Amino acid sequence: MEKPFSVTTYFQRHEQKYLLNAFQYHAFLEILKGFAHHDEYGLSTIYSIYYDNSDFEIARKALEKSAYKEKLRLRSYGIPHSGDMVYLELKKKFNGLTYKQRVPVSFTGMKKCLDFRPDNTPHNYIFDEINWFLYYYKPFPQFMISYDRVAFRGLEHKALRITFDTNIRWRVGDLDFSKGPYGTPLLDDNEYLMELKIDTSLPLFLTTHLTRLKIFPLSFSKYRTAYEGLLNMRKVRYA
Q: pTM score, two decimals?
């Protein structure tokens, strides 16, 4: 019998996002050569299905920019096929710290992801939290967000991970990984979303380079921005 659930993973770290232009992106890539290398994922296309309820309660909470935010998504690295693994992720953010619980799930068994029962899931706190999220929000698939990502990991600072996302696209229909990466662009051309992830504060030499290139942190959520795009489309449609 197929076992749809595998080992769970937990992350707790600081995550900071930056929006770069083409000059800043290429200049920062040159700097990375001295203290980072491509991680095991390298360049990949990431697909995420975001879950929300009929009132878009999770998205609306993100718009309020409250101290505590949470979201649930199903993520795939590339278009999955039978036997591949996808990842059910519950992500929370509180006072600058990000907490992420990840459950690997077989692609062929992923429909069971949102139908947890005490008799077919392990008994641990991550499943308990996902179960509570499902019970409280009663979510279902609402958005597909896809993008191309190149990822680096620090040479000396092993916990440092740096990612660059481009070609970010979103859609509210065709929420199927096999349909590929198409949708409404989230960023302008020649814009790059960089994210720095580390378990402590950023190294001083890194913040020095960021300041020199005039790269400053910002509050940015792909799901929140996609929801804002949907609202704007509806305003135009009904104007």
A: 0.88
